[in-house]
Design brief:
nine-stranded mixed β-sheet; 4 domains; alpha/beta; Methane Monooxygenase Hydroxylase, Chain G, domain 1; polyphosphate kinase like; eight-stranded mixed β-sheet; 37% helix
Length: 693
């Protein structure tokens, strides 16, 4: 089952004469994730997990984007800043699209449950248990679940409780028929327990049950002392505004401000109220009223179960045949075990390509620096770290070994604020110099600079990349990291890091590294203009870009101008794309695709021109106003001929994808390419494995 938006509706086409609204484009991206869940070639349990990814994406979308648009509506703002989009109309379209996608989600989910049963895996509800399973559920409830449940009789409370983000609740209706008496209760499903509970086998059937249904099965026991005849529970969930509220500051007190804001986030305004569509009207209306009324958030009728993001953790039950093949890493052709990484980098630039290469190569570099007596300092930027970070361990060991270790920690990495506060405290306690960066700018660049002094000679070794220093996401996200000792580049990065650690906010002028917010926008426009000039002189004009999001209207207009001048433009955009490709009179020379597959395409690569003289950059920045104007981003040129050829080969492989690539052309949005008879199937992520091997 595939979801294909084949043609924009007439009213949408009028609005989208030159741009696609970024939020509607994001919903289109999440539809591509939903396509993966509906793709029969994807392993069965992985399809369930794609449903979980889709649901988690949706939750964050409402917490961040929908919450922001609602604030504009409440503030009486007529147009979303930087666009001609009316926030009220966008909200209406979002609601309609989300409900349509939820219906698709439900159909795919039902299909997957049926397919699981063909594999002898049954997800049972509380009415489908045999005698042994019923005993097991009852025992599990009393030992594990009951102690964690606190029913609230909400009609009796003076203050209605605050419903927590990421929690699922039961709205419970209790009825005593003899006295014609009804009462409402609120019950939170404990998040401390697994969502999916394995049950005793029924014959040769592998069986699981939702934790929700264990609670449903034992409603009468839970409310036994109240002596009600009928007890019914219906799931509901609230999504809250995730925007933090604090003044700009870079002092230590900034941590306290973030901590206070995180507490406020837990009680922030609701932006979405999702409920079981079979809930009785009186019960639903009661909770809607108590939550502040229907006008204050989006009402989304849903299925029996919420927090479907938990499907990302659906148990494999030992059925590895229903999963992707086990993750594997290809050996790097230059780096060898137990050999000095710095020696290899000194000989020439090295490219790491995650997840095809192991993140342990970078960890080896840090560990080598930590014990090398000639290394004097390590300075790096931190945006998101793994839960049990090997990076932090290596930095702490370096500090203990007498190195000067400087870490720029970005406290405003959304949803990682608490984790980054924790890491800042841990690093500080171990003697690491922790800095929080300049005012009003998020430090999103991915930099690690090692200084080594031997025989009065100073060498610098740099790791610069497109993704975070996070060993867990490096197994799932496709990113590039360049290891280099290039003198000019490392010295420019040193000056940038000096500016960050000194907290002056005064960034240096650089010739090779392109820094945002100082120079990235200007240089991107300059590079596009160069291709336009080439074309006007009768030479080939070519632009090849890969990124997560393309939203900035000034740069989109510049690409339109290049297209109209005859410049060939190829775009690989995973997520939001506000540019309209392939539109007559506007963008005939622009083609755009999106690849959604096993790994999340996260790298940013910018190519301008053809042949040896082409400019090729890797970057931490997407083409969005926030990346260009309000973040410290680093875009780095690639000079090494072999690495340039390697990156270009990967780009062309992805462009040739005819299995997982979707068109972003507005007349065939999200359609996969048709494979002609005799054509070889090219699934780029698997093809890249073969290229490396």
């Amino acid at each position: 089952m595939l979801i294909e938006n084949t043609v924009l509706k007439k009213e949408d086409e009028k609005v989208a004469k030159r741009y696609i609204n970024r939020d509607l484009s994001w919903l289109s991206f999440n539809s591509r994730v939903l396509q993966e869940a509906g793709d029969e070639t994807v392993p069965l349990i992985e399809r369930l997990r794609f449903l979980g990814i889709y649901s988690g994406n949706n939750d964050e979308f409402f917490r961040v984007r929908v919450a922001g648009i609602r604030r504009l509506v409440k503030g009486g703002v007529t147009f979303i800043p930087g666009t001609q989009d009316c926030p009220k109309k966008v909200l209406k379209k979002i609601n309609t699209t989300v409900i349509e996608n939820q219906n698709v989600f439900n159909r795919i989910y039902a299909e997957l449950l049926s397919n699981l049963e063909k594999e002898n895996i049954y997800l049972l509800n509380e009415t489908q248990l045999d005698e042994a399973q019923s005993r097991y559920v009852k025992d599990y409830f009393h030992k594990k679940v009951h102690p964690a449940l606190v029913p609230l009789m909400v009609q009796q409370t003076k203050t209605f409780p605050v419903l927590r983000e990421k929690a699922v609740y039961f709205a419970v209706k209790l009825l005593r028929t003899s006295a014609d008496q009804t009462e409402f209760s609120l019950l939170e499903i404990p998040t401390s327990l697994p969502r999916f509970i394995p049950l005793p086998k029924s014959g040769d059937k592998n069986c699981l049950i939702f934790l929700d249904d264990i609670v449903r099965r034992c409603f009468k026991e839970l409310y036994a002392v109240l002596d009600y005849d009928s007890i019914e529970g219906y799931a509901l969930k609230v999504t809250r505004d995730a925007e933090l509220d604090f003044e700009d500051s870079v002092s230590r007190s900034f941590i306290d401000k973030i901590k206070k804001s995180l507490k406020k986030r837990k009680t922030a305004h609701a932006v979405r109220f999702t409920y079981d569509k079979s809930i009785p009207d009186d019960l639903r209306d009661f909770f809607v009223e108590k939550m502040g009324g229907v006008r204050n958030y989006s009402l989304i009728p849903g299925s029996r179960y919420h927090n479907s993001s938990d499907l990302m953790g659906f148990p494999d039950l030992g059925r590895f045949d229903l999963l992707y093949d086990k993750q594997r890493f290809t050996p790097h052709h230059i780096l060898r075990p137990h050999e000095s990484v710095m020696d290899k980098v000194r000989q020439g630039d090295i490219l790491l390509h995650y997840p095809y290469h192991s993140f342990n190569y970078f960890i080896s570099l840090l560990r080598e620096a930590a014990i090398d007596s000639a290394v004097t300092s390590i300075t790096m930027t931190v945006y998101r770290l793994a839960k049990n970070s090997k990076v932090v361990n290596a930095l702490i060991n370096a500090a203990r070994n007498g190195k000067t270790v400087n870490v720029v920690v970005e406290l405003q990495a959304r949803f990682d604020e608490e984790a980054n506060i924790k890491w800042a405290d841990i690093l500080s306690e171990e003697g690491v110099n922790v800095v929080f960066g300049p005012k009003r700018l998020k430090v999103h660049s991915k930099l690690c600079l090692i200084e080594r002094v031997e025989n009065n000679k100073t060498d610098y070794f740099l790791s610069i990349g497109t993704g975070n220093f996070n060993e867990k996401t490096a197994e799932l996200y496709s990113d590039y990291t360049l290891l280099t000792a290039h003198k000019a580049i490392t010295l420019e990065v040193k000056r940038i890091l000096d500016a960050l650690t000194s907290k002056t906010g005064k960034f240096p002028h650089t010739k090779r590294i392109i820094l945002s917010p100082n120079a990235l926008r200007f240089n991107l426009i300059r590079f596009v203009n160069e291709e336009i000039r080439k074309k006007k002189l009768g030479k080939p004009g070519f632009i090849f870009l890969k990124m997560n999001s393309l939203v900035d209207l000034e740069l989109i207009e510049k690409l339109y101008e290049a297209s109209q001048a005859g410049v060939q433009i190829k775009l690989i955009v995973r997520g939001i794309c506000s540019l309209i490709p392939g539109k007559e009179g506007l963008s005939e020379n622009i083609e755009a695709i999106s690849i959604v597959d096993r790994f999340l395409e996260h790298s940013r690569v910018f190519v301008f021109g053809v042949g040896d003289r082409a400019k090729l950059y890797i970057s931490s920045a997407d083409w969005m106003p926030r990346n260009l104007n309000a973040r410290v981003e680093v875009t780095c040129p690639v000079y090494d001929k072999k690495i340039r050829s390697q990156i270009l080969a990967m780009m062309e492989t992805q462009w040739s994808d005819n299995v997982k690539a979707r068109s972003l052309n507005y007349r065939k949005l999200n359609k996969k390419r048709k494979i002609q008879k005799g054509d070889r199937q090219i699934r780029s992520q698997y093809e890249i494995y073969r290229l490396y091997e």
